[in-house]
Prior knowledge:
The structure holds two protein chains of two kinds.
Chain A lengths: L6 H21 L6 H17 L1 H4 L10 E9 L4 E7 L3 H18 L8 H20 L3 H10 L1 H11 L4 H34 L6 H4 L6 H18 L8 H8 L2 H26 L1 H4 L2 H23 L4 H21 L3 H32 L10 H4 L1 H14 L6 H16 L1 H8 L1 H17 L16 H19 L2 H26 L13 H6 L1 H17 L1
Antiparallel strand pairs in A: 1-2
Chain B lengths: L1 H9 L10 H31 L13 H31 L5 E10 L4 E8 L1 H24 L6 H20 L3 H19 L6 H32 L4 H11 L5 H17 L8 H4 L5 H10 L4 H8 L1 H5 L2 H23 L4 H21 L3 H35 L20 H14 L6 H17 L7 H30 L7 H4 L7 H16 L7 H7 L11 H21 L12 H22 L16 H7 L4 H50 L4 H20 L1
Antiparallel strand pairs in B: 1-2
Helix pairs in contact in B: 2-3, 2-5, 3-4, 3-5, 4-5, 4-11, 4-16, 4-21, 5-6, 6-7, 6-11, 7-9, 9-12, 9-14, 11-16, 12-15, 12-16, 14-15, 14-19, 15-16, 15-18, 15-19, 16-17, 16-18, 16-21, 16-23, 17-19, 17-21, 18-19, 18-24, 19-24
Amino acid sequence: MLNFFSYNDWILHSLVWIPIVGMVHVLWSPEERAKYLALGWSTVVLVLSLGLWWAYDPAINIGGYQLSSSHSWIRQWGASYSLGIDGISIFLVLLTTLTTPIAILGSFNYITKKEKSFYALMLLLEFGVIGVFTALDLFLFYVFFEMTLIPMYFIVGIWGGERRIYAAVKFFLYTAFGSLLMLVAILYLYLRAKTLTGVPSFAFIDLFQISLSPTEQIWLFSAFALAFAIKVPIFPFHTWLPDAHVEAPTPGSVVLAAVLLKMGTYGFVRFLLPLFPVASQHPTVVMIMMTLGVVGIIYAAWVAAVQPDAKKLVAYTSVAHMGFVVIGIFALNINGLQGGMLVMISHGISTGTLFLLLGMLYERRHTREIEDFGGLSLVAPWLATAFVITALASIGLPGTSGFVGEFLALLGAFESHPVIGGLATTGVIFAAYYMLPMVQRIHFNPLDKDKNSKIQDLSRREIIILAPMISLMIWIGVYPTPFLERMEPSVKAIIENVEASTSLNDSEDNKYEIISSVPELIIHTSNIDDNKIADHLNSDETVN
Amino acid sequence: MSNINLIQETGIGEGWEPLLPGLIILLPLLGFFINGVLALWEAKKSAAIIREGNEDTTAGLNSSKAHSWPGWIGPGVIGVAFVLTLINFVRMLEGEASEPIIREYWTWMATGSLEIAAAIQIDQLAIIMVLIITGIGFLIHIFSVGYMHGDPGYPRYFAYLNLFIFFMLILVMGSNYPVMFVGWEGVGLCSYLLIGYWFDQEEKASAGKKAFIVNRIGDFGFLLAVFLLFTNLGTFDYGSIFARGEEVFEYGGPLVTTITLFFLLAAVGKSAQIPLYIWLPDAMAGPTPVSALIHAATMVTAGVYLVARSSLLFAMAPVSSAIVAGIGVFTAFFAATIALKQYDIKKVLAYSTVSQLGYMFLGVGVGAYTAGFFHLITHAFFKALLFLGAGAVIHSMHYALHQTHKDWDAQDIRNMGGLRKCMPITWITMWIATLAISGIWPFAGFFSKDEIIWMTGSIAGADNAPYPGLYTVYWVMALVTAMLTVIYMTRLMIMAFHGMNRTGSKEFGHLHEAPKHMWIPLVVLAVFSVIGGWINVSKDIQQSFLGGFGNIPMAGWLHHWLEPVTESAHHIQEIHWGAISHSAPLGGGEVAWGALSTTAALIVLIVTVWMVRSDKISVATEDSDPRGLSKVIYNKWYVDEFYGHIFIRTLQRLSKFAWRIVDIKIIDRSVGIVAGGMRALGWLASLTQSGQVNTYAFIFTVGILLIFGIVIF
Lengths: 544, 713
């Protein structure tokens, strides 16, 4: 059925560009129709993207990219417009296409000024994020990566709370600082590849093939890692996040938590491990990353527990959750990496939903202080039920999405570093310590504040927003196998590639040459080369 | 027929065909969904009433369908599940199965280096647990129909209760540790929801939260134990772990000791043992049938189940086992002392539960897995009965005090007295339970408790027993605790049911016997509190004590029944500990000590009856504060305060330090300094752009000269 429409050929391009079409449409339409149009276009993207679930087949081209295509873009530099997905990016793309319409639907009441610009920016953001997750060219990736900064900067800066300017600038400077370091590293990598192969190229598959000396790897790793660590964010680079979350409007927070943070962890998996396998498993590097992950888990949980502002509390829990992702990734084994991936998905869903729910509370009471609530279960039982389920998913109750990811990430970490894995497991205690008191103080306890007793329960629109998210939490918790089996080949390929580099590293003589024994990953992705050559030829013809 | 032949030929096989085992789990879940939908519907209606400013939320709700259906659906699904379990149990008895039956439903997690199936396992241990959970669960559901009648959250109550049964069944029926963990945390969730059932009272909501957080400390231990098992054995399944455990682990080695100690942490959290018992007394904030079901009969025994399930591992770790037994007996003693001085009827029973769970830990800790499990069964009967009886009393007291608008505590035994006149069924059945828990022959508790104490003494005299002196101490403490049990239970019964009534003359007229929804479960449980002990009467005891009744075919039945589960553990123990002495440290056989202890218990009971002068008791409002040691015990040895100071306050201080100092002052400020530095550099650079052409020309010239200089030299 999907093949009949040759779905595989056009889908990724459509997912990237339809949001732009939608943006233009929104901008050219009257103000009052903006939200409906934005919702419509993002829903189209969502519906189209669902086919990826079947179009991506983990059994073919194992560990490589699928649905890939490549077109020459800036020929002199070797930059290309190449898109594709694998078992890692497919879920992040789907997460993006899901959360965007939900965030848009969640902002109907929240956003009251300059609606047109707001919804246009939301679609621009979707464009950028989908681009980040589907790009197969480092230059293209970087363009998309930087591009996401702009809409988010304006979303926080224009529609945010009282300290929105401060938060927006902080967010921008922090991440831009990291990105610039990464740019330097990218250019170095590019030039190095060019001298080795003679052909300028930014394509992942070309870059993955160059062999770097361990020293180079460490330096480049550090530059990339810092950029991504700020994005994730990893302790101690996290202080922009609470401010950005607190000031951002609800939809901004939702997209920020659900997908923007994942660009950082995606970067770890997509670039750090394949590009710098030697650095990635250097004991000191691993120790630093694992330690930062564990410190993040525990420290952020502690800080979260004493926040008077509910939104800030949830923002800190994001740092803790991302700690699980980091220790999962740098466990450098299949369980850990699969767990880390699943934590990303699960965090996107549950924390995104928590921000939606806090937004709903804010719309009703115009406050984020936990103090101001109490006893809401009595007047808004449905809202409270949704909140409790989401909170439990967030703290990893078995049967919800949070558990599967955390369990696997912790198990993976424990397999390679028992002490760190053990310390990280205390996170399950501290998660209860930060989450349950908040739930109690908002939804339980006496209904003793007059303003709270008039609160309305969920509207139909809000139920439509929450129902799919909660269903996903339960589905992934009960039956995560379809997710795990789709990501397994890609995860395996990355781990095998890292492991293969151990032996390569031992022999010093092939330091500056193209690796003769090509790692697993490259064999499977080589089909793109053919495409690319064909494209080169095609484009030559058209130019002439 | 051919099936049976095949099994006989090969010697292995299932031996019996289970009837819809998955449905046993599914039925409570179905009940949860139906009741949950009704609850959401009901809550929406009452929310609308509150928003309109109407205080009385129950008005007009009781008559609705949402308020009568849960009373049928809730107990109904559990009743059907119980019948199904009974059918399976009978089939299992006839089939004489030895191998567990495993049903795999789907692959829960598979990453390429591990695979966890959503699978259940029915074996001798699981089926008994399922019988208790669905059987007693059914009775308590029925009791709840009467007890919770008229509560605005009626459907929500049954939704939670059904969900609890669902998770509890997963806990005991799972065929691997991760699936058990689903139930393990799931029952914790239901406990949290049900303790805080009246969530609009801060104290109750907080009690639920406390239970959840303390339990999570145990869950941490569970996870680490499971991780260690996986990294060493590469599997989570009971079958493969216990089949290979003996060859992979070294007897008494550090690895198996660590694993079992982490499991012990989990068990200590769930079963409310020292040092994590503090949540259980607070858990009494929940409705009383919940206390009976979750905090007496089923959930809190999950720790004992865990140890019994992992008996092979514990048998290989003598140090851990000794710690299990030590924690058990010390908790039993410690909690019993606290129970002596409590006035809240539920608090007495709560500490009594902690104490009795300690006995079970002692049993499984000394390697008497059957004895520990046996006490779990009998305790489920008599403690559920005691709690339900207390529920009936509270229900009646509450009604009476409500009728006359007296704001006395309905749970304080000082405010009761003489209740036997108005609540005869409750009175008699609770006395039966009291005699059972006191270990008086021929009630159920006698057989199980006596066996634990007896086995403890016997281990002390085993040929190569580790730490015989330690086990002797355990044995003495267990005996002393048995006497304390008699004292606090008798005190409770006398104060509540005997002597003059202290509730007030107006109120006394309103006190009444429980409705039949409530007293029928009491009677059923009372019957089992009498005969429940016969399932595992030891041969010696049977001949001496029950000789007059002829030979009961049940003698040693439970022991024999559980053999497939526990035999490898017993085997290991026998190899390393040598033959068990079968005599107490002071000499004498089981029969002699049994006779002695039951006589002693009777004497203590009579002395207590004589000591507790009900005419000297003053009501709660007029009573003087306890002093001296009484005060310390009344305040539970100040353990909660100690924890509050040491752990909770430290954690809060650390958290505030992390936020206010580390996050704001150190990290964010240094980021600010870096940003400031950048700005300063920018400012310096901007100085050069003065707009004066001659300055530019000067810098340009200097630059050129510099470059030339570098190139030339």
